[in-house]
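Appendix B, record 7
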Amino acid sequence: MISNRLSIEQAINKEETSLGIELGSTRIKVVLIDHSFQTIASGSYEWENQLKDGFWTYNLEDIIKGLQDAYREMKEEVTQNYGITLQTVGSIGFSAMMHGYMAFDEHNELLVPFRTWRNATTGAAAKALTDLFGFNIPERWSIAHLYQAILNEEEHVPQIRFITTLAGYIHWLLTGNQALGVGDASGMFPIDETSANFNASMIQQFDELVASKGYPWKTRDLLPKVYVAGEQAGILSEAGAKILDPSLHLQSGIPLSPPEGDAGTGMVATNSVRKRTGNVSVGTSVFAMIVLEKELSKVYPEIDMVTTPNGSPVGMVHANNCSSDLNAWLGLFREFYEAMGHKVDANKLYSVLLNKALEADPDAGGLLSYGYLSGENITGLEQGRPLFVRSPESKFNLSNFMRTHLYSAFGALKIGMDILTKEENLAIDSILGHGGLFKTPVVGQKMIAASMNVPVSVMSTAGEGGAWGMAILAAYMMNKNQEESLEDFLDQKVFKDVKGEEIHPEATDIKGFETFIERYKKGLAIEQSAVDNLV
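C-alpha coordinates (predicted):
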Protein backbone atom coordinates (compact mmCIF):
# COMPACT_ATOMS: atom_id res chain seq x y z
CA MET A 1 0.00 0.00 0.00
CA ILE A 2 2.87 2.36 0.91
CA SER A 3 4.71 1.53 -2.33
CA ASN A 4 1.52 2.14 -4.29
CA ARG A 5 1.11 5.53 -2.61
CA LEU A 6 4.72 6.45 -3.36
CA SER A 7 4.21 5.44 -6.98
CA ILE A 8 1.14 7.67 -7.27
CA GLU A 9 2.94 10.58 -5.57
CA GLN A 10 5.77 10.22 -8.06
CA ALA A 11 3.31 10.11 -10.96
CA ILE A 12 1.71 13.35 -9.74
CA ASN A 13 5.06 15.10 -9.21
CA LYS A 14 6.46 13.90 -12.55
CA GLU A 15 3.30 14.99 -14.43
CA GLU A 16 2.59 11.38 -15.45
CA THR A 17 -1.13 11.90 -14.83
CA SER A 18 -4.07 12.68 -17.08
CA LEU A 19 -7.21 14.58 -16.18
CA GLY A 20 -10.58 13.77 -17.74
CA ILE A 21 -13.58 16.04 -17.25
CA GLU A 22 -17.04 15.18 -18.53
CA LEU A 23 -20.18 17.29 -18.33
CA GLY A 24 -23.01 14.78 -18.40
CA SER A 25 -26.72 15.43 -18.31
CA THR A 26 -27.05 15.02 -14.52
CA ARG A 27 -23.45 15.12 -13.26
CA ILE A 28 -20.16 16.80 -13.99
CA LYS A 29 -17.31 14.44 -13.14
CA VAL A 30 -13.57 14.97 -12.91
CA VAL A 31 -11.19 11.99 -12.87
CA LEU A 32 -7.42 12.01 -12.42
CA ILE A 33 -5.58 8.86 -13.54
CA ASP A 34 -1.98 7.77 -13.14
CA HIS A 35 0.44 6.20 -15.62
CA SER A 36 -1.22 2.78 -15.11
CA PHE A 37 -4.63 4.29 -15.98
CA GLN A 38 -6.00 3.85 -12.46
CA THR A 39 -8.21 6.54 -10.95
CA ILE A 40 -6.32 8.25 -8.14
CA ALA A 41 -8.76 11.08 -7.40
CA SER A 42 -12.17 12.25 -8.55
CA GLY A 43 -14.79 14.93 -7.97
CA SER A 44 -18.33 15.53 -9.10
CA TYR A 45 -21.16 18.05 -9.20
CA GLU A 46 -24.83 17.23 -9.55
CA TRP A 47 -26.96 19.39 -11.82
CA GLU A 48 -30.17 19.34 -13.84
CA ASN A 49 -31.31 20.85 -17.10
CA GLN A 50 -34.07 23.46 -17.09
CA LEU A 51 -36.98 24.03 -19.45
CA LYS A 52 -36.72 27.72 -20.34
CA ASP A 53 -38.82 29.44 -23.03
CA GLY A 54 -39.59 26.06 -24.55
CA PHE A 55 -35.98 24.80 -24.67
CA TRP A 56 -34.06 22.40 -22.43
CA THR A 57 -30.94 24.25 -21.33
CA TYR A 58 -28.18 24.78 -18.76
CA ASN A 59 -27.04 28.31 -18.00
CA LEU A 60 -23.40 29.32 -18.35
CA GLU A 61 -23.06 30.17 -14.66
CA ASP A 62 -24.01 26.60 -13.68
CA ILE A 63 -21.59 25.20 -16.24
CA ILE A 64 -18.65 27.12 -14.77
CA LYS A 65 -19.70 26.59 -11.14
CA GLY A 66 -20.10 22.86 -11.69
CA LEU A 67 -16.75 22.63 -13.46
CA GLN A 68 -14.99 24.44 -10.62
CA ASP A 69 -16.72 22.54 -7.81
CA ALA A 70 -15.98 19.14 -9.34
CA TYR A 71 -12.34 20.09 -9.97
CA ARG A 72 -11.95 21.42 -6.42
CA GLU A 73 -13.34 18.18 -4.96
CA MET A 74 -10.83 16.14 -6.98
CA LYS A 75 -8.00 18.48 -5.98
CA GLU A 76 -8.92 18.21 -2.29
CA GLU A 77 -8.87 14.41 -2.56
CA VAL A 78 -5.34 14.58 -3.95
CA THR A 79 -4.27 16.75 -1.00
CA GLN A 80 -6.03 14.53 1.54
CA ASN A 81 -4.67 11.23 0.21
CA TYR A 82 -1.19 12.20 -0.99
CA GLY A 83 -0.33 15.45 0.79
CA ILE A 84 0.17 17.26 -2.51
CA THR A 85 -1.36 20.54 -3.67
CA LEU A 86 -2.10 19.81 -7.31
CA GLN A 87 -0.42 22.35 -9.58
CA THR A 88 -0.15 20.57 -12.89
CA VAL A 89 -0.96 17.34 -14.72
CA GLY A 90 0.45 15.65 -17.79
CA SER A 91 -2.59 16.20 -20.02
CA ILE A 92 -6.24 17.22 -19.90
CA GLY A 93 -9.31 16.34 -21.92
CA PHE A 94 -12.85 17.70 -21.84
CA SER A 95 -15.95 15.80 -22.78
CA ALA A 96 -19.67 16.53 -22.62
CA MET A 97 -23.06 15.41 -23.85
CA MET A 98 -23.07 15.51 -27.63
CA HIS A 99 -25.08 17.57 -30.11
CA GLY A 100 -27.02 20.67 -29.20
CA TYR A 101 -26.48 24.28 -30.18
CA MET A 102 -24.21 26.96 -28.76
CA ALA A 103 -24.00 29.98 -31.08
CA PHE A 104 -21.65 32.92 -30.43
CA ASP A 105 -21.27 36.38 -31.97
CA GLU A 106 -18.15 38.35 -32.89
CA HIS A 107 -17.73 39.41 -29.27
CA ASN A 108 -17.75 35.75 -28.13
CA GLU A 109 -21.12 36.25 -26.45
CA LEU A 110 -23.70 33.45 -26.42
CA LEU A 111 -26.55 34.57 -28.66
CA VAL A 112 -29.31 32.29 -27.32
CA PRO A 113 -29.36 29.97 -24.28
CA PHE A 114 -27.58 26.66 -24.86
CA ARG A 115 -30.02 24.26 -26.57
CA THR A 116 -29.22 20.72 -25.50
CA TRP A 117 -29.59 17.38 -27.28
CA ARG A 118 -32.85 16.89 -25.41
CA ASN A 119 -34.80 19.41 -27.47
CA ALA A 120 -37.16 17.87 -30.03
CA THR A 121 -37.84 21.20 -31.75
CA THR A 122 -36.05 20.80 -35.08
CA GLY A 123 -38.22 18.27 -36.89
CA ALA A 124 -38.76 20.32 -40.03
CA ALA A 125 -35.08 21.18 -40.35
CA ALA A 126 -33.89 17.63 -39.68
CA LYS A 127 -36.22 16.21 -42.34
CA ALA A 128 -35.27 18.82 -44.93
CA LEU A 129 -31.54 18.29 -44.40
CA THR A 130 -31.89 14.50 -44.44
CA ASP A 131 -33.61 14.80 -47.82
CA LEU A 132 -31.01 17.29 -49.09
CA PHE A 133 -27.94 15.30 -48.06
CA GLY A 134 -29.32 11.77 -48.49
CA PHE A 135 -27.89 11.27 -45.01
CA ASN A 136 -29.77 11.04 -41.73
CA ILE A 137 -29.68 14.31 -39.81
CA PRO A 138 -31.25 13.75 -36.37
CA GLU A 139 -33.11 16.50 -34.55
CA ARG A 140 -30.36 16.71 -31.92
CA TRP A 141 -27.58 17.66 -34.34
CA SER A 142 -26.15 21.17 -34.32
CA ILE A 143 -26.77 21.72 -38.01
CA ALA A 144 -30.45 20.86 -37.52
CA HIS A 145 -30.65 23.44 -34.72
CA LEU A 146 -28.98 26.03 -36.96
CA TYR A 147 -31.26 25.38 -39.93
CA GLN A 148 -34.37 25.38 -37.73
CA ALA A 149 -33.31 28.80 -36.41
CA ILE A 150 -33.05 29.91 -40.05
CA LEU A 151 -36.50 28.49 -40.89
CA ASN A 152 -37.90 30.26 -37.82
CA GLU A 153 -36.21 33.49 -38.95
CA GLU A 154 -34.64 33.95 -35.53
CA GLU A 155 -32.99 37.34 -35.19
CA HIS A 156 -29.68 36.02 -33.92
CA VAL A 157 -28.75 34.01 -37.04
CA PRO A 158 -27.00 36.81 -39.04
CA GLN A 159 -24.88 37.61 -35.96
CA ILE A 160 -23.42 34.09 -35.61
CA ARG A 161 -19.66 33.82 -35.94
CA PHE A 162 -19.16 30.27 -34.64
CA ILE A 163 -21.17 27.37 -33.25
CA THR A 164 -19.97 24.50 -31.10
CA THR A 165 -20.98 21.80 -28.64
CA LEU A 166 -20.70 21.97 -24.86
CA ALA A 167 -17.34 20.16 -24.88
CA GLY A 168 -16.12 22.46 -27.63
CA TYR A 169 -17.22 25.48 -25.62
CA ILE A 170 -15.33 24.44 -22.48
CA HIS A 171 -12.24 23.60 -24.54
CA TRP A 172 -12.37 26.98 -26.29
CA LEU A 173 -12.94 28.83 -23.01
CA LEU A 174 -9.86 27.23 -21.44
CA THR A 175 -7.54 27.21 -24.47
CA GLY A 176 -8.79 29.84 -26.91
CA ASN A 177 -8.82 27.15 -29.62
CA GLN A 178 -12.05 26.35 -31.46
CA ALA A 179 -11.47 22.61 -31.70
CA LEU A 180 -13.50 19.43 -31.60
CA GLY A 181 -12.70 15.73 -31.64
CA VAL A 182 -14.04 13.95 -34.70
CA GLY A 183 -16.50 11.89 -32.65
CA ASP A 184 -18.16 14.96 -31.16
CA ALA A 185 -17.91 16.78 -34.49
CA SER A 186 -19.84 13.93 -36.13
CA GLY A 187 -22.85 14.98 -34.02
CA MET A 188 -22.69 18.51 -35.40
CA PHE A 189 -22.42 17.87 -39.15
CA PRO A 190 -21.74 14.76 -41.29
CA ILE A 191 -18.14 13.56 -41.43
CA ASP A 192 -16.27 12.34 -44.51
CA GLU A 193 -14.61 9.12 -43.36
CA THR A 194 -11.74 9.44 -45.85
CA SER A 195 -10.66 12.84 -44.55
CA ALA A 196 -11.90 12.58 -40.93
CA ASN A 197 -13.32 16.05 -41.43
CA PHE A 198 -16.67 17.69 -42.13
CA ASN A 199 -18.16 16.55 -45.45
CA ALA A 200 -17.12 19.25 -47.92
CA SER A 201 -19.79 18.53 -50.53
CA MET A 202 -22.56 18.67 -47.93
CA ILE A 203 -21.18 21.96 -46.60
CA GLN A 204 -21.43 23.32 -50.14
CA GLN A 205 -25.01 22.03 -50.40
CA PHE A 206 -25.94 23.79 -47.18
CA ASP A 207 -24.31 27.05 -48.32
CA GLU A 208 -26.33 26.88 -51.53
CA LEU A 209 -29.51 26.13 -49.56
CA VAL A 210 -29.21 29.30 -47.48
CA ALA A 211 -27.47 31.52 -50.06
CA SER A 212 -30.60 33.60 -50.72
CA LYS A 213 -30.62 34.70 -47.08
CA GLY A 214 -27.45 36.74 -47.59
CA TYR A 215 -25.86 35.84 -44.27
CA PRO A 216 -22.36 37.25 -43.68
CA TRP A 217 -20.93 33.78 -43.05
CA LYS A 218 -20.11 30.51 -44.76
CA THR A 219 -20.96 27.25 -43.02
CA ARG A 220 -17.36 26.04 -42.72
CA ASP A 221 -16.35 29.26 -40.96
CA LEU A 222 -18.93 28.59 -38.24
CA LEU A 223 -17.67 25.10 -37.40
CA PRO A 224 -14.69 24.23 -35.18
CA LYS A 225 -11.51 22.60 -36.46
CA VAL A 226 -11.71 18.80 -36.35
CA TYR A 227 -9.04 16.66 -34.66
CA VAL A 228 -8.67 12.90 -34.29
CA ALA A 229 -7.66 11.03 -31.13
CA GLY A 230 -3.95 11.31 -30.42
CA GLU A 231 -3.54 14.83 -31.78
CA GLN A 232 -2.92 17.81 -29.52
CA ALA A 233 -5.74 20.36 -29.74
CA GLY A 234 -4.35 23.22 -27.66
CA ILE A 235 -2.80 24.13 -24.32
CA LEU A 236 -4.34 25.40 -21.12
CA SER A 237 -4.18 29.19 -21.18
CA GLU A 238 -3.50 31.37 -18.14
CA ALA A 239 -7.12 32.53 -18.22
CA GLY A 240 -8.28 28.91 -18.57
CA ALA A 241 -6.22 27.78 -15.57
CA LYS A 242 -7.82 30.51 -13.45
CA ILE A 243 -11.30 29.44 -14.56
CA LEU A 244 -10.72 25.78 -13.76
CA ASP A 245 -8.91 26.45 -10.47
CA PRO A 246 -9.83 29.84 -8.97
CA SER A 247 -7.38 29.17 -6.13
CA LEU A 248 -4.67 29.87 -8.75
CA HIS A 249 -2.63 26.76 -7.97
CA LEU A 250 -3.07 25.21 -11.41
CA GLN A 251 -0.39 26.15 -13.93
CA SER A 252 -1.02 27.00 -17.57
CA GLY A 253 0.66 25.33 -20.54
CA ILE A 254 -0.79 21.83 -20.01
CA PRO A 255 -1.49 20.07 -23.36
CA LEU A 256 -5.12 19.28 -24.16
CA SER A 257 -6.47 16.42 -26.24
CA PRO A 258 -9.37 17.01 -28.65
CA PRO A 259 -12.65 17.57 -26.77
CA GLU A 260 -15.00 14.65 -27.27
CA GLY A 261 -18.64 13.74 -26.85
CA ASP A 262 -19.97 11.38 -24.22
CA ALA A 263 -20.58 8.75 -26.89
CA GLY A 264 -16.89 8.69 -27.79
CA THR A 265 -15.70 8.53 -24.21
CA GLY A 266 -18.17 5.72 -23.58
CA MET A 267 -16.62 3.75 -26.44
CA VAL A 268 -13.17 4.26 -24.97
CA ALA A 269 -14.26 3.40 -21.42
CA THR A 270 -15.64 0.07 -22.65
CA ASN A 271 -12.89 -0.69 -25.21
CA SER A 272 -15.43 -0.60 -28.02
CA VAL A 273 -13.65 1.17 -30.88
CA ARG A 274 -12.87 -1.85 -33.07
CA LYS A 275 -15.21 -2.84 -35.88
CA ARG A 276 -18.02 -5.28 -34.91
CA THR A 277 -17.86 -4.15 -31.30
CA GLY A 278 -20.32 -1.90 -29.53
CA ASN A 279 -21.39 -0.41 -26.26
CA VAL A 280 -24.55 0.81 -24.61
CA SER A 281 -24.58 3.81 -22.29
CA VAL A 282 -27.40 4.06 -19.79
CA GLY A 283 -28.35 7.29 -18.07
CA THR A 284 -30.89 10.08 -18.55
CA SER A 285 -30.76 9.08 -22.19
CA VAL A 286 -29.64 5.72 -23.58
CA PHE A 287 -27.60 5.08 -26.67
CA ALA A 288 -25.95 2.12 -28.33
CA MET A 289 -22.87 2.55 -30.52
CA ILE A 290 -21.94 -0.16 -33.02
CA VAL A 291 -18.69 0.22 -34.97
CA LEU A 292 -19.58 -0.73 -38.54
CA GLU A 293 -17.62 -2.91 -40.91
CA LYS A 294 -19.85 -2.03 -43.88
CA GLU A 295 -22.14 0.79 -44.94
CA LEU A 296 -25.84 0.53 -44.19
CA SER A 297 -28.03 -0.25 -47.19
CA LYS A 298 -30.10 2.92 -46.83
CA VAL A 299 -30.81 5.95 -44.67
CA TYR A 300 -32.70 5.27 -41.46
CA PRO A 301 -34.08 8.17 -39.41
CA GLU A 302 -33.64 6.04 -36.29
CA ILE A 303 -29.89 5.54 -36.86
CA ASP A 304 -27.32 8.31 -36.42
CA MET A 305 -24.13 7.91 -38.41
CA VAL A 306 -21.28 9.19 -36.24
CA THR A 307 -17.67 8.13 -35.63
CA THR A 308 -15.30 6.77 -33.04
CA PRO A 309 -12.77 9.27 -31.60
CA ASN A 310 -10.33 8.09 -34.28
CA GLY A 311 -12.80 8.44 -37.16
CA SER A 312 -14.26 4.96 -37.80
CA PRO A 313 -17.97 4.94 -38.83
CA VAL A 314 -20.47 4.10 -36.10
CA GLY A 315 -24.18 3.35 -36.19
CA MET A 316 -25.70 5.08 -33.18
CA VAL A 317 -29.16 4.43 -31.77
CA HIS A 318 -29.98 7.26 -29.39
CA ALA A 319 -33.16 7.41 -27.31
CA ASN A 320 -33.82 10.66 -25.47
CA ASN A 321 -35.42 9.00 -22.45
CA CYS A 322 -34.13 6.21 -20.28
CA SER A 323 -33.72 6.21 -16.50
CA SER A 324 -35.39 9.46 -15.39
CA ASP A 325 -38.86 7.99 -14.85
CA LEU A 326 -37.43 4.85 -13.25
CA ASN A 327 -35.49 7.07 -10.85
CA ALA A 328 -38.67 9.01 -10.07
CA TRP A 329 -40.49 5.81 -9.09
CA LEU A 330 -37.56 4.71 -6.95
CA GLY A 331 -37.70 8.11 -5.29
CA LEU A 332 -41.38 7.51 -4.53
CA PHE A 333 -40.57 4.18 -2.89
CA ARG A 334 -37.86 5.90 -0.89
CA GLU A 335 -40.34 8.54 0.30
CA PHE A 336 -42.75 5.80 1.40
CA TYR A 337 -39.99 3.97 3.28
CA GLU A 338 -39.01 7.15 5.10
CA ALA A 339 -42.67 7.90 5.91
CA MET A 340 -42.76 4.52 7.64
CA GLY A 341 -40.01 5.75 9.93
CA HIS A 342 -37.09 3.88 8.38
CA LYS A 343 -33.70 5.20 7.39
CA VAL A 344 -32.97 4.51 3.72
CA ASP A 345 -29.72 3.25 2.27
CA ALA A 346 -29.92 4.39 -1.36
CA ASN A 347 -27.75 1.57 -2.72
CA LYS A 348 -29.82 -1.07 -0.95
CA LEU A 349 -33.06 0.54 -2.15
CA TYR A 350 -31.92 0.35 -5.76
CA SER A 351 -30.55 -3.15 -5.37
CA VAL A 352 -33.67 -4.61 -3.77
CA LEU A 353 -36.14 -3.00 -6.16
CA LEU A 354 -34.16 -3.65 -9.34
CA ASN A 355 -33.59 -7.28 -8.38
CA LYS A 356 -37.35 -7.74 -7.99
CA ALA A 357 -37.48 -7.49 -11.79
CA LEU A 358 -35.69 -10.85 -12.01
CA GLU A 359 -38.71 -12.50 -10.34
CA ALA A 360 -41.18 -11.05 -12.86
CA ASP A 361 -43.09 -12.65 -15.72
CA PRO A 362 -40.93 -12.58 -18.87
CA ASP A 363 -43.32 -10.14 -20.59
CA ALA A 364 -43.79 -8.04 -17.41
CA GLY A 365 -47.30 -9.33 -16.83
CA GLY A 366 -49.12 -7.21 -19.37
CA LEU A 367 -48.07 -3.90 -17.80
CA LEU A 368 -46.92 -0.92 -19.85
CA SER A 369 -45.06 2.32 -19.17
CA TYR A 370 -43.44 5.19 -21.07
CA GLY A 371 -40.71 7.11 -19.28
CA TYR A 372 -40.95 10.02 -21.70
CA LEU A 373 -40.03 13.22 -19.88
CA SER A 374 -39.22 14.74 -23.25
CA GLY A 375 -39.96 13.95 -26.88
CA GLU A 376 -38.65 10.72 -28.40
CA ASN A 377 -37.36 10.82 -31.97
CA ILE A 378 -37.29 7.05 -32.52
CA THR A 379 -41.01 6.70 -31.81
CA GLY A 380 -42.00 10.05 -33.34
CA LEU A 381 -43.16 11.85 -30.17
CA GLU A 382 -42.39 15.59 -30.12
CA GLN A 383 -43.13 15.84 -26.40
CA GLY A 384 -43.29 13.41 -23.54
CA ARG A 385 -45.63 12.51 -20.70
CA PRO A 386 -44.47 9.85 -18.21
CA LEU A 387 -47.18 7.22 -18.24
CA PHE A 388 -48.03 3.90 -16.58
CA VAL A 389 -50.88 1.78 -17.97
CA ARG A 390 -52.43 -1.61 -17.15
CA SER A 391 -55.54 -3.54 -18.04
CA PRO A 392 -57.82 -5.33 -15.56
CA GLU A 393 -56.18 -8.61 -16.64
CA SER A 394 -52.60 -7.41 -16.09
CA LYS A 395 -50.59 -9.07 -13.35
CA PHE A 396 -49.94 -6.02 -11.20
CA ASN A 397 -47.25 -6.78 -8.65
CA LEU A 398 -43.95 -5.24 -7.65
CA SER A 399 -41.72 -7.53 -9.70
CA ASN A 400 -43.72 -6.97 -12.91
CA PHE A 401 -43.87 -3.24 -12.14
CA MET A 402 -40.07 -3.04 -11.89
CA ARG A 403 -39.47 -5.14 -15.02
CA THR A 404 -41.93 -2.96 -16.93
CA HIS A 405 -39.98 0.18 -16.13
CA LEU A 406 -36.68 -1.47 -17.03
CA TYR A 407 -38.09 -2.76 -20.32
CA SER A 408 -39.58 0.66 -21.03
CA ALA A 409 -36.24 2.35 -20.34
CA PHE A 410 -34.83 0.32 -23.26
CA GLY A 411 -37.99 0.25 -25.40
CA ALA A 412 -37.09 2.96 -27.91
CA LEU A 413 -33.51 1.68 -28.01
CA LYS A 414 -34.74 -1.80 -28.97
CA ILE A 415 -36.80 -0.43 -31.86
CA GLY A 416 -33.67 1.20 -33.27
CA MET A 417 -31.40 -1.76 -32.62
CA ASP A 418 -33.84 -4.11 -34.36
CA ILE A 419 -33.14 -2.16 -37.54
CA LEU A 420 -29.43 -2.93 -37.31
CA THR A 421 -29.74 -6.56 -36.25
CA LYS A 422 -32.89 -7.69 -38.08
CA GLU A 423 -33.05 -5.49 -41.19
CA GLU A 424 -29.33 -4.86 -41.81
CA ASN A 425 -28.21 -8.25 -40.37
CA LEU A 426 -25.37 -6.46 -38.65
CA ALA A 427 -22.82 -8.77 -37.02
CA ILE A 428 -22.01 -7.74 -33.45
CA ASP A 429 -19.28 -9.65 -31.63
CA SER A 430 -19.72 -7.99 -28.28
CA ILE A 431 -21.67 -5.30 -26.45
CA LEU A 432 -20.29 -3.64 -23.34
CA GLY A 433 -22.49 -1.74 -20.93
CA HIS A 434 -21.70 1.29 -18.82
CA GLY A 435 -23.63 3.76 -16.72
CA GLY A 436 -25.12 3.98 -13.26
CA LEU A 437 -27.70 1.23 -13.81
CA PHE A 438 -24.91 -1.35 -14.03
CA LYS A 439 -23.79 -0.64 -10.48
CA THR A 440 -26.51 -3.12 -9.51
CA PRO A 441 -25.09 -6.41 -10.85
CA VAL A 442 -26.86 -8.64 -13.41
CA VAL A 443 -30.25 -6.91 -13.69
CA GLY A 444 -29.47 -4.24 -16.28
CA GLN A 445 -27.29 -6.63 -18.25
CA LYS A 446 -30.06 -9.24 -18.46
CA MET A 447 -32.62 -6.70 -19.67
CA ILE A 448 -30.37 -5.23 -22.36
CA ALA A 449 -29.14 -8.66 -23.46
CA ALA A 450 -32.78 -9.72 -23.88
CA SER A 451 -33.64 -6.58 -25.83
CA MET A 452 -30.73 -6.95 -28.30
CA ASN A 453 -30.36 -10.74 -28.28
CA VAL A 454 -26.61 -10.21 -27.87
CA PRO A 455 -24.28 -11.08 -24.96
CA VAL A 456 -23.63 -8.02 -22.80
CA SER A 457 -20.51 -7.52 -20.69
CA VAL A 458 -19.73 -5.05 -17.95
CA MET A 459 -16.11 -4.36 -17.14
CA SER A 460 -14.78 -3.30 -13.77
CA THR A 461 -13.92 0.00 -15.43
CA ALA A 462 -17.49 0.64 -16.61
CA GLY A 463 -18.47 2.43 -13.44
CA GLU A 464 -15.69 4.95 -14.07
CA GLY A 465 -17.70 6.32 -16.97
CA GLY A 466 -16.95 8.92 -19.56
CA ALA A 467 -14.67 11.14 -17.48
CA TRP A 468 -12.31 8.17 -17.11
CA GLY A 469 -12.62 7.49 -20.84
CA MET A 470 -11.72 11.11 -21.53
CA ALA A 471 -8.69 10.83 -19.25
CA ILE A 472 -7.63 7.75 -21.26
CA LEU A 473 -7.88 9.77 -24.50
CA ALA A 474 -5.71 12.47 -22.91
CA ALA A 475 -3.21 9.79 -21.85
CA TYR A 476 -3.21 8.32 -25.37
CA MET A 477 -2.24 11.71 -26.78
CA MET A 478 0.80 11.87 -24.50
CA ASN A 479 1.87 8.20 -24.31
CA LYS A 480 1.13 6.49 -27.63
CA ASN A 481 3.88 5.09 -29.77
CA GLN A 482 4.37 6.83 -33.09
CA GLU A 483 2.18 4.49 -35.16
CA GLU A 484 0.09 3.03 -32.33
CA SER A 485 -3.63 3.01 -33.09
CA LEU A 486 -6.21 3.83 -30.45
CA GLU A 487 -7.51 0.24 -30.70
CA ASP A 488 -4.07 -1.22 -29.99
CA PHE A 489 -3.38 1.25 -27.18
CA LEU A 490 -6.62 0.22 -25.47
CA ASP A 491 -6.18 -3.52 -26.06
CA GLN A 492 -2.51 -3.82 -25.19
CA LYS A 493 -2.11 -1.21 -22.45
CA VAL A 494 -5.33 0.02 -20.86
CA PHE A 495 -7.45 -3.16 -20.88
CA LYS A 496 -4.74 -5.81 -20.97
CA ASP A 497 -5.63 -7.17 -17.52
CA VAL A 498 -9.26 -6.00 -17.26
CA LYS A 499 -11.88 -8.73 -17.05
CA GLY A 500 -15.54 -8.40 -17.96
CA GLU A 501 -18.61 -10.15 -16.60
CA GLU A 502 -20.58 -11.40 -19.61
CA ILE A 503 -24.26 -12.36 -19.54
CA HIS A 504 -25.93 -14.17 -22.42
CA PRO A 505 -29.60 -13.54 -23.20
CA GLU A 506 -32.04 -16.21 -22.08
CA ALA A 507 -34.66 -17.54 -24.49
CA THR A 508 -37.56 -16.80 -22.13
CA ASP A 509 -36.40 -13.20 -21.62
CA ILE A 510 -35.93 -12.68 -25.37
CA LYS A 511 -39.45 -13.91 -26.05
CA GLY A 512 -40.83 -11.89 -23.15
CA PHE A 513 -39.21 -8.68 -24.38
CA GLU A 514 -40.54 -9.28 -27.90
CA THR A 515 -44.06 -9.60 -26.46
CA PHE A 516 -43.55 -6.44 -24.42
CA ILE A 517 -42.20 -4.42 -27.35
CA GLU A 518 -45.27 -5.22 -29.46
CA ARG A 519 -47.43 -3.92 -26.59
CA TYR A 520 -45.13 -0.91 -26.37
CA LYS A 521 -45.54 -0.09 -30.08
CA LYS A 522 -49.32 -0.45 -30.00
CA GLY A 523 -49.53 1.71 -26.88
CA LEU A 524 -47.74 4.66 -28.48
CA ALA A 525 -51.17 6.02 -29.41
CA ILE A 526 -51.91 6.23 -25.67
CA GLU A 527 -48.72 8.21 -25.12
CA GLN A 528 -49.57 10.54 -28.01
CA SER A 529 -53.04 11.10 -26.54
CA ALA A 530 -51.47 11.99 -23.20
CA VAL A 531 -49.25 14.54 -24.96
CA ASP A 532 -52.28 15.98 -26.78
CA ASN A 533 -54.56 16.16 -23.75
CA LEU A 534 -52.42 16.48 -20.63
CA VAL A 535 -50.88 19.91 -20.22
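Remarks on this record: The radius of gyration is 23 Å. The CA atoms of residues 56 and 339 lie 33 Å apart.
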